[in-house]
Amino acid sequence: MRIGIYPGTFDPITNGHIDIINRSVLLFDKVIVAVTTNPSKSPLFSIDERIEMVLSSTRSLSNVEVDSFDDLLVNYALHKNAIAIIRGLRATSDFEFEFQMALVNRKLSNELVTVFLMPNEKYTYLNSTIVKEVASFNADVSCFVPEAANKKLLEKFSAKKTKHL
Ligand code: ADP
Question: What is the per-residue pLDDT across 127-158, written as a single tens digit (0 to 9) for each?
Fold first, then answer.
């Protein structure tokens, strides 16, 4: 079975991530969306919330599994018997970091390849940070994120607002 790992913070999952997942499922028998528990990015959503949003948004895809990991990505991927790490490339701004990561990961394990997929152009400007920024002003982000993430963003920011009253 050809398994691909799609790792990320998914804080929250966006339509850009969904685009990459939809492309990945055509290439692999199984795609594991692996949500990192690494707190270095100080995520807005807890690991459980992020997993829940990914699960709800990928329910219709039978060969997608959702998991979390806190190990070194390469070790986690090998443990899962994956053959590839899947990453999205939006613009040249992603390139330098992704190139470095892919080469380091290749050095760590020759058994894994990194596969870069480009999303539809309409998602190339999208990332989780900008979505959170816009949502924090209670603006509508439903065109940027799946329904489950939109709901959670609304809950999170209305709760924050109430707290400040
Ligand atoms: P990370 O913390 O690894 O940057 P993200 O959840 O932000 O985690 O992203 C996970 C992967 O999805 C990365 O490869 C990133 O480049 C890709 N990605 C994020 N947003 C988009 C998008 N709009 N279109 C395509 N790929 C994307």
Answer: 999 999 999 998 999 999 999 999 999 999 98
Task: Please provide the DSSP assignment of 118-134 as one string.
Answer: PPPGGGTT--HHHHHHH
Contact 32, 59 (CB under 8 A): no
Closest CA to 83 of 119, 112, 106: 112
Q: Which of 30, 57, 128, 132 is catalytic?
A: 128
Nearest CA to ligand 1 atom 8: 8
- Residue 28 CA: distances (Å) to CA of 7, 25, 115: 15, 5, 11
Spatial separation of the C-alpha atoms in residues 137 and 5, rounded to whole Å? 34
Structure tokens at 85: 């790490």
